[in-house]
Amino acid sequence: MSDTFTAVPGLRRVARLLCAGCGLLLLGAAAATVWLPGWAGTVVALALWVAGIAATLPSAGGCIAVARQARLESGRPDLFLERNAVRSEEQLAQRRLPAWRALRRRLAAIAFGHRHLVGDAVRIRALHDIRATLDAQGCLDGLPFMEEMAAFCGREAVVYRVVDKIYDYGRSRRMRRLDDCVLLMGQRCDGAAHAGCEAACYLIWKSQWLEPLSEASPQVMTQDAPLAPPASGASDPATVYSCQYTQLTAASNAMSQGDWRGLLGPWVVGNVTATAFWVAVATRAFNALQLRRGGLCYPAQPPGGNDKTTQVLALRPGQWVRVRSSTQIARTLDKNSKNRGLWFDRDMLKHCGSMRRVRGRVQKIIDIHSGRMIPMKTACITLEDVHYSGEFQGFGEQHDYLYWREAWLEPVDPGSGGNAATPTP
After folding, report:
1. Cβ neighbour number for residue 19 with a 10 Å cutoff
2. What is the model's pTM?
């Protein structure tokens, strides 16, 4: 396989042939309406129109995929992230809200059952009111209300994402439906009630725990939550912890792959912009075609080099780093795209070549499968504002931090140029 995807002539040829095929099908449809009389012309024209439209999406996706890969290889910002930057916490804090909110709100309520839109100002209900909604296990619809959430009660906040699906890490490894939930800007778990777990997951709020505010801008947290301070004493390895992310299966329902609500809902509620939505959908259509024909998909990653060398840079919070190129990172990966057990996710390719600030080191997290605290054999690095975009998870809204090996980063002087950090969704 070639190191690059834009350098493969066959990929561009596929995109051109798809575009040409679409044009011929649509021209044939137009001709059929003129030259074939009666029902025959109508049926043929309709069939050609449907085929032409069906071929348009993967053909457009091919062109978009080639352009996106060229951006990736030149270190320029990813097209999906760039088009969705207006949905970042920084932009939403400035009240950069999705347009057509009244129409969106009606559609969200009627077609998708959502009470909130991205950018809504809310107040978190008082702790005693929230506790009145919980069952004997401290859950509402299977979702726990955690002790770390109590500090936010009574505060005003802004809806960052409307959650209608989650990725079930612990059991099925599939997307599952999670009803009537949102993420609030800047509100991540600090692990204080869970032995200092450093995963910093976004807290998930049920709509029943919130009440609406006026359109006036509330006072909200807009910065990434810092890493939790180490808990005093060592955590007991035999202790089994329960948190929102260990209980995601119980709090969610099975979701079919053809669930149209999961595809369109994120755009209606404002999780993604219209242009970011179509960039992702077209790319997905092209990738589906490529998988069927055994071709390259976007994003393409060079083959692993199986170099398991561990690099220790002693990176500190606030320090600037540059994410190494995909070719450099690939040399550190095995055939499964892992380095010492840590997977280099394709969502991480979007950040190759960019300059970022170090958020901190992750040295222990709660294992989603067992509920036990596990120490990292090699500490991972998190970067400010760098988390899963959700594009490759059906616009999944969890926005967990991406974990990096130090070998995938290099310290830089912020004045040295390069692709400095840009707001990401």
Report:
1. 16
2. 0.84
CB 205 within 8 A of CB 244: no
Top-confidence residue, 313 or 257: 313
With a pLDDT cut of 90, the percent of the chain lying above it is 49
Residue 37 identity (one-letter amino acid): P
The residue with greater pLDDT, 420 or 277, is 277
* Digit-coded pLDDT (tens) for 265-309: 999 999 999 999 999 999 998 898 888 888 888 998 877 777 666
Looking at residue 161, its pLDDT comes to 96
Type of residue at 28: G
Contact partners, residue 141, CB within 8 Å, separation at least 6: 179, 180, 206, 251
CA torsion sign for 145, 148, 153, 156 is negative
Work out the pLDDT band at 53, boundaries 50, 70, 90: low
Per-position DSSP letters for 62-115, written without gaps between them? HHHHHHHHHHHHHTPPPHHHHHTGGGSHHHHHTT-PPS-HHHHHHHHHHHS---
First to last CA, the chain: 32
| d(C-alpha 63, C-alpha 213), whole Å | 43
Hey, how many other C-beta atoms are within 10 angstroms of the C-beta on 402?
A: 20
Q: What is the DSSP string of 136-166?
A: TTSEETTEE--GGGGGGTT-EEEEEEEEEEE
Q: Report the phi/psi class of residue 167: left, alpha or beta, with left for phi > 0 and alpha for psi in -120 to 50.
A: beta
The encoded tokens of residue 111 equal: 């077609």
- What is the enclosing helix (H) or strand (E) of 359? strand 355-366
Q: 10 Å Cβ neighbour count for 235?
A: 19
Mean pLDDT of the chain: 83
